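FIELD: query
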Amino acid sequence: MENVPPPAEELAFLDHELAQLDAHRAQLLARRAWLISVLQSRVPRPQAPPSPAVPRSAWAAPRPETSPPGVQNLLLALGGLLLTIAAIAFTVVSWGHLGIGGRAGVLGVLTSLALVSPVPLLRRGLASTAEALAGLGLALTVLDAYAWHRVSAADTGGAAFAAGAAAVLALLWAGYGSVLGRLGLPLPAAAVAAQLPLPLWSVAVGAGALTTSWALLLTAVVGGAIAWWGKGAAVRLCGCAGAGLTGAGALLTAGLLSFDADTAADAAAPGALLLAAAVLTLFAARRMSSPLPAAVAGLAAVAAVGGVARTLCPDTWEPVVHLLCAVALLAAVRTRLPRPVVRGLTGASAGVQTAVTVWVLPPVLLAAVTPLSWAGRSWTGAPRSAELSGAWPWLTATPVALLTVAAVLALARRRSGPERTWRTGATCSALVLGWAALLVLPVAFALPYTATVLLYTALTAACLALAGRPGPGGPEGAAFTASALACALTGALTVTFLALAARPATFTVLGILLALFAVAAAVATGRLVRTVAACAAVAYATGLAGAAGTALELPLHRTSLLVLVVPAAAALLAARLRHHPLALPVEITGAAAGLLAIALSLGDAGTAASVLALCAVIVAGTAVRPERRTVGPAAPVLFVLATWIRLSASGVAVPEAYTLPVAVPALAIGLLRRRRDPQASSWTAYGPGLVAMFAPSLFAVQDDPYWPRPLLLGVSALAVTLTGARLRLQALLVLGGAVLALDALHELAPYIGQVLGALPRWLAPALAGLLLLGVGATYEQRLRDARRLRDRLARMR
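FIELD: result
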C-alpha cells in the first residue's frame, strides 16, 4: 500500500532525517580529527606525499534497489495479511472453544482496536501503518458479520444475510472512510460492497432471469452513480468497473430473453429493460461525451424494439426488422447530441447492418455457385424456376436486406464530405450489395428460368457498363471500376453455367455475352476493363465454337477444328491492331484457345496432325510481324510434331522419316545464319541438325541386318566429312568423321572378329608391345603431329 503523506508531514520527516545525518557526520568528523592528531604525535617524521585521492564513487555504498516507503508498505501489508489470516483461523477453527460472551468480546475488542488505532497513527504521520490497521479492521467487520450469522441468524439464508450484511457494511465503511478521509481503503471497499446487495438478494429470493436482470441493471445504476459522484480515483474506478460488469450481465440476459420470446407480450418485458438500459446508458454517454456508452445504448435500443417487432412478422423477415431498427438509429445524425454520442450511435447502427449482411450472405453465395452443377448435365432441360439447394428461412428477406444496406451506404456516401476516407469503401460496398441483392432475387422469389437468365444477363451488362464508363480518377474511381468488373465477370460465369440447362439459352447467352465483352473492349475507357473484356470475348468465342460442335454432334477431335477458328481470328485481329495495347491480350487468349483445340484433337491422330499443322501456320503468320519474331521457332516445332503424328498414324517406323524433317530445316537455318554472320561457330549453326540427322540412324544401324541403311549412312557421313574438309568447318569434319568411323567399324566388326579368332592369342600382346615401342621411339614427332592437328582443327569453325 503506497500512501503519500501530506506535504507538511513529509517536509517535517525530511528535515528530521537531515538533522540526524548532520549530527552523525559531525561525530565522524570529530573522530577523524582525533585520530589524525594521535597519529601525528606518534610519528614525528615528515609525512609522505599524499596518495592519489580515491574516487568517492569507488567507496560509495551500493545503490539501494527499493525505497524506504516501499519496504515499509510491504512489511505493513504482510503484517496486515497475517493478522487477517489469524483472525479468520480463530473465527472459523477456534470459535467453538469459547462461550458466546468470549466470542463477542474477543472479536469486538479486536475490531475496535483495529478501527480506532488509525486515528492516533494518522496524527503522528504514520499513514501507512494506519492504512494497514484499517484494512485489518475492515476484514474483521466481515468476520463479525459471519460470526453474527452463525450465532444469532443461523435460520436466515446465507444469500439473504449476505445481501443485508453487504448493505450495512457498505454504509459503515463509507461513514468510516468519510470520517478518516486520509485513509484510502475504506471508501473503495464501500463502493464494492454497495454493488453486492441487489444481486445477492435476487439469488436469495430465487428470482427469475428477468428479475435478476433488473437487479443487475439497478446495480449498474448504483455503480454509475458511484463512478460519477465518488470521491477519489479508486472509488470511481470501482464504481465504473462494477457498472460495466453488472450492466453487461443485465443486457446480455435481457437480450437472450428477447431473442427467445415467441409472442409480443413475452418480448415486451425484456424489451422494457433494454429500453431503460438504453436511456440510462445514453444519459451516461452525454455526461461523459464518450462514443462507447452511446454504442451500447444504440444496440440495446435495437434489441428492444427489434425483439418485439420480430414477433409480429413472419420468421423469414427477422433480419429486415432488426435492420430497419438499426437504420432508424441513423436519425441521431440530425440531432443536436454531442458528436461522440452521434458517432457511438452510428457505430451501433453500422455494426447491426454488418451483422445482418453477414447473416443473409449464404443464400447469395449459393445462388452464384448452384448453376455450376449444370456443367455435368448440360442440355438436359431447363427447370421451371431458379433452384437453390438447402432450406433458408430468411431467403425471401435476403434481397430486401441487401438493398436496404446498399441504399444506406449510397445515401451516406452522397451526404458525406469529399474529405471522408470511407467514401471509397461505401461506394464499392453499395455496388456489390446491390448486385448481390439482384443476384439472389430470382431464387428468393422463385422466378421462371427464362426471367432468371434475362435478369442475370442484364445485370452483367449493367455492371460491365458501370465498369467501362468514364468516372473519377484516383483510388476511388479505380476501386469502383474493379468492383464493377468483378461483379460483371461473376455474373457472366453464373449465367453461362445456368444457360447450359437448355440449348437455345446456351447459344443466346454465349452470343450476347460475346457481343457485350467485344463492345466493352472497343468502347470502354479504362485499360483494365478493355483488356479483361477482350480476353473474355475471345473466351466466349471459344465457348461458342465448342457449343456449335456439340450441337452438330461432332466428336471432340472434330470439334477442335471449329475451336481452331478462334486462334486464327485472334491472330488476324491482333495483326490488324498491331501495336495496340489489346493486341497482346487477344493473342495470349487465342493461344490458350489453340492449346484447347490441340487437347481436344488428341483423340484422333490424323486430326491432331492437322490441328498442329494449322497451329503452325497461324504461328508462322504471326511471326511474320517484326514485333512477334520471337514466336517463330514455335512454328517448325509444331510442323515437326504434326509430321511425326502423321507418320506414326500411317505406321511408319523408319527413324529417318522422323529425323530428316527436323534435320533438313535445322541445317538450312544454320546455313542462313552462317551467311548473315560468317563468324558464327559451325557447332552452333550445323551441330543440332547433324546430330538430329545422324544419331537415330547410327543407333538403328546396330540392329539392322540389311546393307542399305549402313551404306547410305556411310555415304552421307563421307559427304559431310569431305564438305567439312573442303570448307574447313570443324563440326562437319568431326561429326561426319566420327559417324563414318563408327559405321565402318560396325560393318567390319564380323570380319575383324573372324580374323581375331583365327590368330594365335600371343599375337595381340606382341602387337601392343611393338606399338608402344614405336610410339616411344617417335614420341616427340608424334607429339608435334598431334599439336599440328589440334591447331588445324582450332583454326576451323
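FIELD: remark
The mean pLDDT is 80.
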